[in-house]
């Protein structure tokens, strides 16, 4: 049983918002594959939303220029979403197999150009190639809107049906290689991620999203191809003139007609709901991430300051410093702490030492020397030791550590 048209319109618009809201902070991360995925899915939802509103109760020909753009865009989305997933999984593989900890700016730009060629160039190419097998201008389906016309020949299979399957198979190869690299050198991967300021949880979220998209692309595209062969049949290619005969024709199919064919209705409904599902799937992985919550908080605080409402404060980690409290004149310096740490300070008794050198010893045997800028007004006593105890964390956390004055 199909959902009412207004239900789809509502979810399509929500899907557009789910892709548009996180776009700003994804652009800041130079993550071209993810941005392309969000843009294509978001515009696909917006396109379907507009069509479902304009043709909510009829199949009357209106907004012809819009339908030319909309129907061609649907062909592009058919390739763009799998291509964007390929960009994501390819980038994950390059990170997992990276020899250098940090790429140069030139290498970053080169990676962005390749992602744009795959995620933007391929859809544009196939939108242009679709004209070869475009039987007439477009069709108007009641409650669905503008729909591309394709003269289903062997050439149409190559241009329209096969590309998503081929791209999905290539993405599967990259996914397998990424998992192999991840298992082979997990410690090195985490080191690369830390140098590139990429949280490991974000990396795993991208990998999961790409894998889910890949596992859905190939079966769904194969099913659609099989249904087209069964319902429409493959016609022989009789030449350019035969294919484009009466090209200006615009087909009109009321909803009651196309919904009467159950198999055809399933394919049509699935093709528009899949874009909404992709939008909700993306938001499920990235809409509740820590960086997303920080941006939501910042947006709320901006609006709250504008209208005079109370703002939200950032949550800060707290450490039990009861043993390190000094009764008077506390000085603060930032220190990176990852576990139970003894902080030993060695300084001269002079009132203005040139530097304050400290060594951090951790239970796993690591020893790091840190040098702090001097504070002439605060002379430290010789061999002061401060001990901090709290639950270990995976990634270093910035805490504020008090240093006693003399």
Structural overview:
The structure is a single chain. By secondary structure, the protein is of the alpha+beta class. The protein is built from 12 helices and 9 strands. It has helices at 5-20, 23-28, 32-54, 64-96, 105-129, 154-184, 186-195, 200-231, 240-243, 255-258, 262-286, 290-307, and strands at 138-141, 145-147, 250-253, 330-337, 341-346, 356-361, 367-372, 384-388, 397-404. The strands form 3 sheets. The chain has a 4-stranded antiparallel β-sheet with strand order 7-6-5-8, with no helix packed on it. Strands 2-1-3 form a 3-stranded mixed β-sheet. Strand 6 (356-361) and strand 7 form a beta hairpin. The model is unreliable at 316-406 (pLDDT under 50).
Distance between the termini: 79 Å
Strand order of the largest sheet: 7-6-5-8
Could you spell the SSE succession in H and E letters? Answer: HHHHHEEHHHHEHHHEEEEEE
Rounded mean pLDDT score: 75
Helix content: 55-70%
Q: How many beta strands in the DSSP annotation?
A: 9
Low-confidence stretches: 316-406
Write down the overall geometry: globular
Main sheet characteristics:
4 strands, antiparallel
Radius of gyration: 29 Å
Q: Tell me the structural class.
A: alpha+beta
Our count of helices gives 12
Into which percentage range does the β-strand content fall?
Answer: 5-15%
Give me some keywords for this one.
alpha+beta, about 400 residues, globular, about 55% helix, three-stranded mixed sheet, single chain
Secondary structure elements and their pairing?
Elements: H1 5-20, H2 23-28, H3 32-54, H4 64-96, H5 105-129, E1 138-141, E2 145-147, H6 154-184, H7 186-195, H8 200-231, H9 240-243, E3 250-253, H10 255-258, H11 262-286, H12 290-307, E4 330-337, E5 341-346, E6 356-361, E7 367-372, E8 384-388, E9 397-404
Parallel strand pairs: 1-3
Antiparallel strand pairs: 1-2, 4-9, 5-6, 5-8, 6-7
Helix pairs in contact: 1-3, 1-11, 3-4, 3-5, 3-11, 4-5, 4-6, 4-8, 6-8, 8-11
